[in-house]
Amino acid sequence: MAKTLFEKIIDREIPGSFVYEDEQCVVIKDINPGAPLHLLVIPRKPIPRLVDATVEDQALLGHLMLVANKVAADAGFGEAFRVTVNNGAGAGQSVFHIHLHVMAGRPLKWPPG
Ligand code: 5GP
Q1: What structural domains does the chain harbor?
Q2: What pLDDT does residue 76 have?
Q3: Whether residue 113 has pLDDT greater than 90
Q4: How many angstroms is it from 55 CA to the middle of ligand 1?
């Protein structure tokens, strides 16, 4: 199977601005930030979409959420940040390797557009 864009970044085949990594995931800065803080929490396992995750991935998905907490807090936004998963092209997903968007640093309207 061809590597996803994010696998290539994780493998340092294309550049990425890394802010955190561990054995299960990495966190990079979004190349086209939609807020002063816009990070992507990406599991090393290339699950394409949230809907493709199974019960086997339950602990991994929980880990990604806790890492989102950590990187938001480390950036000084621990009290007000948004975590988003776009599932499917119709919901705005463009990279088919599951990831959490962590955004903060400006007023975040609800519901998002
Ligand atoms: P999605 O639209 O799939 O929910 O989110 C994909 C995100 O990846 C977008 O916010 C987009 O700006 C970001 N992105 C796309 N290509 C690259 C890249 O090469 N490097 C980084 N750091 N982010 C990327």
Answers
A1: 5-104 (3.30.428.10)
A2: 98
A3: no
A4: 26
